[in-house]
Amino acid sequence: MSQAETSELLGTGRRAAVVIASTSAARGEAADTTGPILVDWLRGRGYDCPEAIVVRDGEPVGQALRDLLVNAAVDARPRIVVTSGGTGLAPDDRTPEFTAELLERQSPGLIYAMWRKGLESTSSAVMSRGVAGVRGRSFVINFPGSKGGVKDGIAVIDDLLEHIQTSIEDTTDHGPRV
User: Which UniProt keyword terms apply here (predicted)?
Assistant: First the structure.
């Protein structure tokens, strides 16, 4: 890709992070199947995105999110944080709770759109309890832990990502309000 093409990508000059909530992957008992998909997507949009952070379900997810969104210096915080996993009904599926406590504003319509997309192929899509929203200049969204759920989430969010990013950065001209 040429420098001119790279500079036109939305994520250019911005950081992103992926957090995978999977106890079995964190223990090395299973492969992380969703992190590589999410990292490739964000890199393809121009974001500087390291490999996924893989943690156990429960409190380690909260700590990873706090490290990215609170403990990091303001200018080092990622503009996009995508989680995968920990959104189901198991006792340690607490990704939405840890995310919600850090958000300043939620955007439930994005999750509803992901449910709708997921329902095209599986009725279990509505079991995902993810949340989405903003903290400072960071957009945070919880994707399900399945490859299908991640692909559905990307299909929904990808078309909206530029508008989400420019809105958070307040670089869009809303025009007159009528």
Answer: Molybdenum cofactor biosynthesis
